[in-house]
Amino acid sequence: xxxxxxRPDAVTDRTISGRSPWQLAWARIRTDKVALxxxxxxxxxxxxxxxxxxxxxxxxxxxxxxxxxxxxxAQGLPVAPNGTFWFGTDRLGRDLFIRVLYGAxxxxxxxxxxxxxxxxxxxxxxxLAGYYGxxxxxxxxxxxxxxxxxxxxxxAIAVVSIAGPSLTATIGVIAFYSWAAIARVVRGQxxxxxEREYVEAARSIGxxxxxxxxxxxLPNLLAPVIVLTTLLVPAAIVFESTxxxxxxGIVPPTPSWGNLLSEAQGFYRVAYWYxxxxxxxxxxxxxxxxxxxDGIRDAIDPRMERLFSLRRRRRRRSGxxxxxxxxxxxxxxxxxxxxxxxxx
Amino acid sequence: xxxxxxxxxxxAVAASLLAGACATQTGTNTSPSPSQNAxxxxxxxxxxxxxxxxxxxxxxxxxxxxxxxxxxxxxxxxLFGLNGVSKEADTTKGFAVVxxxxxxxxxxxxxxxxxxxxxxxxxxxxxxxxxxxxPRQVTAGxxxxxxxxxxxxxxxxxxxxxYTSTIKGMAAYCADYAKAFEKAKPTAxxxxxxxxxxxxxxxxxxxxxxxxxxxxxxxxxFLNILSLNFSxxxxxxYDQYVPDDAxxxxxxxxxxxxxxxxxxxxxSIRLEKNPAWNQAADPIRHQYVNAVDVKMGVTExxxxxxQIEAGSADLAWDLPVPTAQIPRLKxxxxxxxxxxxxxxxxxIVFNLQSKNAGGAMGKLKVRQAIEYAVNKVAIAKIYGGAxxxxxxxxxxxxGNIGYQEYNPYPTSGDQGDPAxxxxxxxxxxxxxxxTLVGAFRNAGNHPANFxxxxxxxxxCGITVKGLPVRQGDYYGAFLQNPSIAKASKWDISAxxxxxxxxxxxxxxxxxxxxxxxxxxxxxxxxxxSNPKVDDLIKQALAEPDQAKAAALWHRVDQTVMGDxxxxxxxxxxxxxxxxxxxxxxxxxxxxxxxxxxxxWLNPNSP
Lengths: 344, 606
Description:
By secondary structure, chain A is mainly α. Helices cover 69% and strands 0% of the residues of chain A. The radius of gyration of chain B is 24 Å and the shape is globular. Chain A binds chain B through residues 64, 66, 68, 72-77, 91-92, 161, 164-165, 247, 251-253, 263, 265-271, and chain B through 300-302, 322-328, 330, 375, 377-378, 380-387, 415, 442-443, 447-448, 450-452, 454-455, 458, 465-468, 470.
């Protein structure tokens, strides 16, 4: 395990009790206000997205209902935010607030499912490559290289023109692009972990490869995978918006944030709300997910310092210096994964 | 029909099969006069056009985009042409054919048209010159060469059907041409050798200044056909190039007031004054501006509009006035005009061959239910409301032969009638509704159109699943490919139709849209076939009396609407914007653009 830091301020003079690494992580994240607020925003967004049908039923505006008399002017311009339409309307007289909420359902669904799929594939491929090494490693690593070097938009356009744009195609394309980043990190970690004494011990008492991989090594990989996955979710959301914006993602009339932005582009000079609200929601969502991801990384792996960490500033102020148990291989893989997450 | 601004309209090839009888020619011989309040003409300056994409072709024989026609007016001349109009109310005056290189409009009275209506003798104007060293007269032989290039296998005319269905021997010549290059490599030398050794029976240069056309059947719209850019003259030098290849594009030879001095594909085109041109030999053009600059690569209509308003551009090249800006511009901007349209754009077409939902599209009652369902006012709002688009009830729109206002599927305020739709669906055997596939272009206003009409259909129980198609693939690769229709890939879609000419144009509207034709390249996308309609079209094309022909075309309209083959949605007007300094802007209805050869710039710098 890499979670070996003991912070002096975490050790109180009250009862001394053993804490698991997860408890330690939780203790750290609780002091990170930015992460907590971002987490709250994410939870709120998810709640609103889940409640979208209830809200739509409550105010009587379905996501595809076109209010051609009240929601659009005679000359076809959208209506500004008012008591009936909180975020204004779009060019077809639909309630933008409801559409942004329904768009959140699509965006979050795509973000979570695509990243989940990517994590699953990435972990399995990374484990196999790292654990077996040799030819398997070479083949799988080159596969990752190929995927990572693909021009993703061209690939997306190709896939969509063959399969036709749909939710499944969108999720598929995004997952295809994200798994390799995870697989690389997992492979690196596995390479180092498989040489550890406890793995040797497991092997010496006759454990099978599968057991070693999934019972002994996998739990020790969870920290970087969780961090990376959290950071990939906002990337997937932006990816989905890009595809939909280009008309390659979610098929209208189903609202997604990319669709909303795409529809609004001809109206930004006359209807600020049309572009403004979906764009702001997209911005807030990706920012919140990124900050949560950052917070989790800080908590699980406190050796990494963030640029604007409140905790670090506090620590600086208190002049605290911590001894840090560093493991060279872990550091190297950490560097690699932070570099990948930047690319993602 | 010609393809228009790529965000709004369409490409389609009108395949014409039959020609008709002679009708009275309505051409007038008036030269455009400067519009009121424009003041005295000012020479000089550079007209700056800004837009998104490139021309389709620079070769007059093959160009089919209207934006290309817009600049081609500066460098390629035909026997006959059209004049621009200065006022919205005068738009229909822009439909009349006037002489260009021809000295006069041929009629039976002046001996230009023979008594049987089959022979047209056209005299060429003196002093029309090619920009060669030294300048050389444009001859009847140059026009013959132009006609021979129409069906070249490399870059032929977009609508050869207009020629093969009217000119004697044209169909045979084109068939021979295609056959000769089935396997042979179409090099410049080989193409020229074929053209110079084969004749079109119905196109003869009697002498240098006289050209004689012989038709297979009298055709009242023949002069319209001669005014299309496919009918341009071609100098002997064109024999050195493969039509419209990269080398050709650097060596286009002008006989108009401007010549191409620079062409960089997908980036820019520059036209400058042609020294070989003289005003006395051109009744429809002038040479006011020094140069015309086309800048490409700005794909946002809003960005172009801002540039024109700021004065850093003069006209939009291939992009429409952004819909969202129309209300603001309409309230008092003198540089903004809306010219009345004569088009069916958009309309809903049904794939009659589809087997989806139990072959629902093949059932008359289902199609009629949809006729009642759609809210045409809502579609008009997508284009900017009633000022820009008006509800259309007829298959033939106003300004086209056979148009008479009637409304076979009336609904209150054109807003659709879901109850009537549901009732007809129940009668058709779909009381619980059905699911259809709706194909739409994923660009411009088209996704909004789709979402609007599919919401209307949803109200009467028809779920329309969206099938986005790339803008560039929509016509050629998708709708005009009947095997896709046969495979039930789509049930319903909303294309648009803009005729190649207006007035006496059954050959450019009803024939391509409704005559039986299920071959690749058809414009009858749903493969509608009714022997009664085919027969009426044949009769109408052969009818010498224009009033009687109009009555026949109207019967085509009634039959087609009775069969509910299309749902006409809107007739769209053309909003158009210019910079302040553009004066004497004359609107060409056939191109939906201002005439660059008649406007001047005040002030004239840059």
